[in-house]
Amino acid sequence: MADVRLVDIEKKYGNFLAVPQLNLTIEDGEFLVLLGPSGCGKTTTMRMIAGLEEITSGDIEIAGKRINDKPPKDRDIAMVFQNYGLYPHMTVRQNIDYPLKLRGVDRAARTRRVQETAEKVELEALLERRPSELSGGQRQRVALARAIVRTPSIFLMDEPLSNLDAKLRVTMRAELKHLHHELGVTTVYVTHDQMEAMTLASRIAIMREGRIVQLDTPKRIYSEPADLFVAGFIGSPSMNLIDGAIAGGVFTAPGVSFPVDQPDRDDVVLGIRPEDLEISTAPDAPVIGKLYALELTGESTLVTLRTGANSVCARGPADHEAEINAPCHFVPKPGARVHLFDRPSGHRLD
Ligand code: ATP
Predict the structure, then answer these.
(1) Cβ atoms of 275 and 303 closer than 8 Å
(2) For residue range 85-119, what is the model confidence (pLDDT) as tens digits?
(3) What is its EC number (predicted)?
(4) Per the omega criterion (within 30 degrees of 0), is the bond before 237 cis?
């Protein structure tokens, strides 16, 4: 068992409260992703778990034991951090081998293990080089290999794929997913990349200004965002968020009119994802405006219309063609989810 409990942990840098009173339990074997905008406290939280950052108050427990005062090397954690931390005087092979050597693994097993791991991260050809002779992405893969070469109680990974090109990133993502399936090691993972978060996580913690605003499965974060911040943060292109009011069971904004199951109120935001809208010619469509832009993405076309102050985007078929500024109508697809939020608080209403 290697669950991680953060109990009322707080981090102050001088007078600046970077993380206020955070409570979070990461279950044994879970893949928890911390996701949030730059500066929200993701790295600080990871560094506190690793023991690289002193906590101002609160407790950290691993497998039921308080470890506040344990040095990083005694926490049985393998980590990949943004600044790699490779040993410059060692070759790639020696860097990857080091955690095994430190734990007294015999030479034959080490050689085999280093080779297998180097293959996983596509570094076999570079084993005799030193870190200074590698690109940023290659160094990042050495750091990743050094972390996954053994099976620790916990993996901590802070943007481990951020310097890789798009193709390698997708390959490595699948490697990490497979590795987690094989080993079932409790993992805490920081990323800016929503796709990485959605595909890897068993649960995602969305952070904002040091606080967790939603902790949920990727599916629920996507389909039931707790507030406007999460709704706007997850999804690409992001959810359409339209300011308006509800009267007589209809949400209304300029060019927009949706039947909704909510009592009358002002200051409401209606949210609907681009993939939940389709292009229509119906004269009474709930969204009516003028075509503003067409963007072909390959598998689909992003269609943006303007109505009043609002832009609304729908994901249409790849072969969709239309004239800019022509009338444009959207209807919800069958089974589409319409979200409603209270504008002042940002909280979800439905
Ligand atoms: P990013 O995605 O940009 O890496 P993050 O979510 O990981 O951001 P942190 O690095 O945890 O954010 O930083 C959280 C807050 O604490 C930020 O406002 C940052 O400026 C501040 N901070 C981090 N380290 C220090 C430090 N050593 N001294 C003072 N403030 C710090």
Answers:
(1) no
(2) 899 999 999 999 999 999 999 999 999 999 999 99
(3) 3.6.3.20
(4) yes
**Closest alpha carbon to 6 in 21, 19, 20, 24:** 24
Nearest CA to ligand 1 atom 28: 13
Identify the three-state secondary structure at position 330: strand
Among 120, 128, 139, residue whose Cα is nearest residue 94: 128
Global pTM?
Answer: 0.90
What are the backbone angles phi and psi of residue 328, rounded to the nearest 5°? -140, 130
Task: State the closest ligand 1 atom to the C-alpha of 44, by its place in the atom list counted from 1.
Answer: 11
Atom of ligand 1 nearest to the CA of 11: 16
- For the stretch 243-293, pLDDT in tens is 999 999 999 999 999 999 999 999 999 999 999 999 999 999 999 999 999
Q: Where are the domains of the chain?
A: 4-229, 240-342
CATH: 2.40.50.140, 1.10.1020.10, 3.40.190.170, 3.30.420.10. Which one for 240-342?
Answer: 2.40.50.140
Q: What is the distance between the alpha carbons of residues 156 and 55, in angstroms, rounded to a whole number?
A: 17
Closest CA to 19 of 77, 60, 78: 60
CATH 3.40.50.300 matches 4-229: yes
Give the whole-angstrom CA distance, residue 65 versus residue 62.
5
Mutate to test the pocket of ligand 1, among 43, 188, 192, 208 (most ligand atoms within 8 A of CB): 43
Query: Would the CB of 38 count as within 6 Å of ligand 1?
Result: yes
ipTM (interface predicted TM): 0.95
